[in-house]
């Protein structure tokens, strides 16, 4: 039996080996059974406007209609969905207000990278009930070169002005005078619709109603395409503009009060039919606001008390139209008109605690009015190739303002007097931009920018000498950027060549002149290993040329002991900045973390100098300090833990080394003398914000917002920490068309500014306004059409704001 079984076993083994060899050969010869990974790409545009649709949703489903992958389109309408295994799928493209698009897709070894080309979405003709013109909540988007805060109608953005909205924006700080700092630095560009304004940024932010603002863009490391001014970057405030089919509108009414009332209202209207879109916006802001504070001089044992009541009225108009000549050519025109009428009644009391007979009293009555007008023309031509276009934009801005100050005194030796200041400024900006997608993955941008500014100030006084100041500035720039995308990597390189000429004339004498040619490079590198993770590294060189308020030698304001004026001999400061950001998408939200480092040459800062013409007097002005450095980290997130609760939170920490020369008073042979001393400070500043939204019912929402700012040390002053908490509720009615809201700000009355310093004198102080306020608001929207956004480029300006603490 054994002899008979041996051949059978051997035969069975041979058959097994044969089958195994055949199986291996089949596996090798049939690649269709192996895993292939491919990509799906394309471009999404509006069928009628022939313009890209950013942030459209891309969905890839398998045969069982289960989600396999997805994403959103970029600013230029393009999308790329990576890591798709071989197989048959359904591609779906969706965007609010448009008919969904579907297409079958097959990924195979022969066809693993599928480009579906241009997908044209057609607008749905539905009622407005399905559309939200103004988002319910403020949201934050992280883009390749900027962070965009889309302003909703939530409680943190209602009832106030642009200056109050800035309190709630990540990375932005606002001092008691309304001066803005980005990442702890006041050298920041403030723009309206990307355009230059001739109104002081601090004043303008207090005039714009919050309901007129669509979004706030934070551009912390701009590319070579943008104006290089602003050490800490650019803050661009985008005003609302509708482009809905038919007739549409939105009305907002609100009142905010503490000791005094503030009224805030706006209306947006537009009509779109055929090739014409006409739109308009009106916002009114009528406020009374009391500011008060004190400064105590310990070395002389006297205290200065300040009390100011502001009574301001501002009106902001925006009117424009778009004409779609054909599919390739579009013309747009608009104008902004900003009217302001203000009155300040202020008192300054200097109380000498040891010698009350020396007390000084000053009363100030200020009347001011101004008109800021912007006229904008834009023409865009699209070539046959998708994304290939050329655009010309001309922006003309004119400002005329008058200020009349009456000073009355009791005590001391200063007589009563009157000051009158007249300002006239014009600013013309010309942009010519050319964009050419050299391939599906590469893009070239070229352009020219010209900025021509003329400023005339005239000062007349019954006590001091009259004076005139003229400041003219011409800037011409050429730029080029080149970018390329790979599957997971992308980069952009750029350079800006700029010619800068400036001339300042004070009382018919040339006090400053400069002519500089500079190159400003920039670079971006982005890595996106998956849909959930994104990394970005960027570098740019920037400049801060002194702003008008920083160089104007005509005094801006005065108290018996402090005078504010500019320094016409200020030099520009240059900054090299490097930045790294990481974004992680979560199931219920996202988190963004970043870090930056800046090296600053000849930093411009506000300083207090001793005034030799006034006993114990000081001059608030600007000086160039030594080379300084700064670095910091930022973390921001939005998350929805449950269906009824979502929050936005951010934390930022900045460290900076400041070096400079300050004035000190020392005793020499029994006599006080003013000497200059070297000072260096290593300061760390940190801020934390959190905004919670709680949905009680379908139409009722509650909100709590908290903010904390840590201690900050500068060369001359140390500011103490403070915090505040806001809360409120919102109710929707009439099917979501109407909204009523109530909120209570600074419920613990803790929002006060406190500081202390040793140079040039030992002193400490505190300032506080009407921050513990109650707001009641009502909004209603109406209309018949869907939104069709008209894309226009946004430009920055060459004007920077000064910062300070007084």
Q: Could you describe the largest sheet, including whether it forms a barrel?
A: 22 strands, antiparallel, barrel
Figure out the total of helices.
Answer: 4
Approximate shape: globular
Q: What structural class results from the helix and strand content?
A: mainly beta
Kindly report the average pLDDT value: 81
The Rg value, from CA coordinates, equals 31 Å
Distance between the termini: 112 Å
Question: What percent of residues adopt helix (DSSP H or I)?
Answer: under 10%
Range of strand content? over 45%
Quick one: how many beta strands? Answer: 44
Low-confidence segments, given as residue ranges, are: 1-9, 15-33, 125-137, 785-806
How would you describe this protein?
With 806 residues, the protein is mainly beta. It is built from 4 helices and 44 strands. The chain has a 22-stranded antiparallel barrel. The chain has a 5-stranded mixed β-sheet with strand order 8-9-13-14-12, with no helix packed on it. Strands 3-2-5-6 form a 4-stranded antiparallel β-sheet, with no helix packed on it. The longest helix has 28 residues, at 2-29. The chain starts with a helix and ends in a 23-residue tail after the last strand. 38% of the residues are buried. Mean pLDDT is 81; it is low at 1-9, 15-33, 125-137 and 785-806.
Quick recap:
This protein is mainly beta.
Topology:
Blueprint: H1 2-29, E1 37-46, E2 57-61, E3 67-72, E4 78-85, E5 87-94, E6 101-107, E7 113-121, E8 139-142, E9 147-150, H2 162-165, E10 172-174, E11 180-182, E12 189-192, H3 201-207, E13 213-219, E14 234-239, E15 246-257, E16 261-273, E17 276-297, E18 302-324, E19 329-352, E20 360-382, E21 389-410, E22 417-436, E23 442-461, E24 467-485, E25 489-506, E26 509-530, E27 533-544, H4 548-551, E28 557-558, E29 562-564, E30 573-586, E31 589-601, E32 604-611, E33 617-624, E34 628-642, E35 645-668, E36 671-695, E37 700-709, E38 712-713, E39 717-719, E40 722-733, E41 738-744, E42 753-757, E43 763-768, E44 774-783
């Amino acid at each position: 039996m054994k002899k008979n079984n041996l051949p059978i076993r051997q035969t069975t083994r041979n058959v097994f080996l044969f089958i195994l060899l055949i199986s291996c050969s089949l596996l090798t010869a049939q690649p269709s059974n192996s895993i292939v990974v491919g990509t799906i790409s394309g471009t999404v545009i509006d069928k009628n406007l022939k313009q890209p649709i950013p942030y459209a949703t891309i969905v890839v489903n398998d045969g069982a209609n289960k989600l396999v992958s997805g994403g959103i389109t970029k600013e230029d309408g393009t999308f790329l969905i990576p890591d798709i295994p071989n197989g048959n799928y359904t591609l779906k493209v969706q965007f609010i207000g448009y008919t969904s698009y579907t297409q079958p897709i097959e990924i195979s070894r022969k066809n693993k990278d599928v480009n579906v080309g241009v997908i044209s979405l057609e607008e749905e003709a539905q009622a407005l009930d399905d559309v939200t013109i103004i988002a319910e909540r403020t949201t934050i988007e992280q883009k390749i070169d900027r962070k965009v805060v889309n302003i909703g109608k939530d409680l943190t953005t209602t009832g106030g002005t642009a200056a109050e909205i800035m309190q709630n924006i990540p990375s932005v700080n606002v001092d008691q005078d309304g001066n803005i700092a980005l990442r702890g630095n006041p050298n920041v560009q403030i723009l309206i619709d990307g355009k230059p304004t001739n109104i002081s940024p601090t004043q303008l932010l207090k005039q714009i109603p919050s309901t007129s603002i669509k979004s706030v863009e934070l551009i912390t490391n701009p590319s070579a395409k943008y104006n290089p001014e602003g050490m800490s970057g650019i803050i661009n405030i985008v005003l609302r503009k509708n482009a809905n089919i038919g007739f549409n509108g939105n009305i907002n009414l609100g009142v905010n009060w503490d000791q005094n009332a503030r009224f805030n209202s706006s209306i947006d209207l537009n009509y779109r039919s055929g090739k014409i879109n006409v739109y308009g916006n009106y916002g009114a802001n009528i406020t009374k606001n009391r500011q008060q504070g004190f400064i105590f001089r310990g070395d002389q044992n006297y205290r200065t008390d300040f009390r100011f009541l502001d009574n301001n009225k501002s009106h902001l108009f925006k009117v424009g139209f778009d004409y779609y000549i054909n599919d390739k050519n579009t013309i747009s025109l608009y104008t902004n008109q900003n009217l302001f009428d203000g009155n300040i009644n202020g008192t300054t009391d200097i109380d000498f605690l040891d010698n009350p007979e020396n007390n000084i009293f000053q009363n100030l009555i200020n009347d001011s009015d101004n008109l800021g007008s912007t006229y904008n023309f834009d023409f865009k031509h699209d070539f046959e190739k998708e994304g290939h276009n050329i655009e010309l934009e001309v922006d003309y801005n004119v400002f005329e303002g008058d200020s009349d100050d009456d000073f009355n005194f009791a005590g001391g030796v200063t007589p009563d007097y009157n000051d009158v200041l007249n300002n006239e400024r014009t600013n013309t900006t010309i942009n010519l931009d050319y964009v050419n997608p050299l391939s599906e993955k590469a893009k070239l941008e070229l352009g020219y920018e010209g900025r021509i500014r003329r400023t005339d100030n005239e000062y007349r006084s019954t006590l001091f000498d009259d004076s005139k100041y003229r400041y003219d500035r011409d800037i011409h720039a050429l730029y080029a950027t080149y970018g390329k995308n790979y599957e997971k990597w992308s980069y952009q390189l750029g350079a800006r060549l700029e010619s800068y000429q400036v001339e300042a004339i004070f009382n018919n004498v040339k006090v400053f002149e400069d002519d500089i040619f500079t190159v400003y490079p920039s670079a971006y590198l982005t890595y996106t290993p998956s849909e959930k993770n994104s990394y970005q590294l960027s570098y740019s060189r920037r400049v801060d040329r002194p702003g008008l308020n920083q160089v104007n030698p005509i005094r801006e304001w005065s108290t018996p002991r402090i005078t504010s004026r500019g320094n016409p001999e200020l030099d520009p400061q240059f900054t090299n900045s490097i930045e790294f950001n990481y974004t992680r998408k979560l199931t219920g939200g996202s988190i963004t973390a970043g870090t930056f480092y800046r090296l600053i040459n000849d930093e411009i800062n506000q300083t207090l100098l001793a005034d030799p013409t006034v006993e114990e007097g000081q001059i608030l002005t600007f000086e160039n300090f030594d080379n300084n450095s700064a670095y910091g980290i930022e973390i921001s997130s939005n998350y929805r833990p449950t269906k009824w609760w979502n929050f936005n939170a951010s934390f930022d920490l900045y460290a900076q080394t400041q070096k400079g020369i300050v004035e000190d008073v020392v005793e020499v042979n029994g006599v006080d003398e003013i000497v200059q001393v070297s000072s260096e400070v290593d300061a760390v500043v940190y801020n934390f914000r959190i905004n919670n939204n709680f949905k009680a019912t379908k139409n009722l929402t509650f909100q709590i917002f908290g903010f904390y700012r840590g201690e900050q040390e500068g060369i001359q002053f140390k500011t103490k920490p403070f915090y505040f908490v806001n809360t409120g509720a919102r109710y929707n009615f009439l099917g979501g068309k109407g909204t009523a809201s109530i909120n209570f700000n600074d419920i613990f009355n803790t929002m006060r500014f406190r500081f202390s310093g040793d140079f040039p004198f030992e002193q400490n102080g505190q300032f506080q306004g009407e921050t513990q306020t109650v707001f009641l608001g009502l909004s209603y929207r109406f209309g018949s059409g869907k939104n069709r956004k008209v894309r226009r480029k946004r430009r920055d300006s060459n004007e920077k704001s000064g910062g300070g603490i007084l």
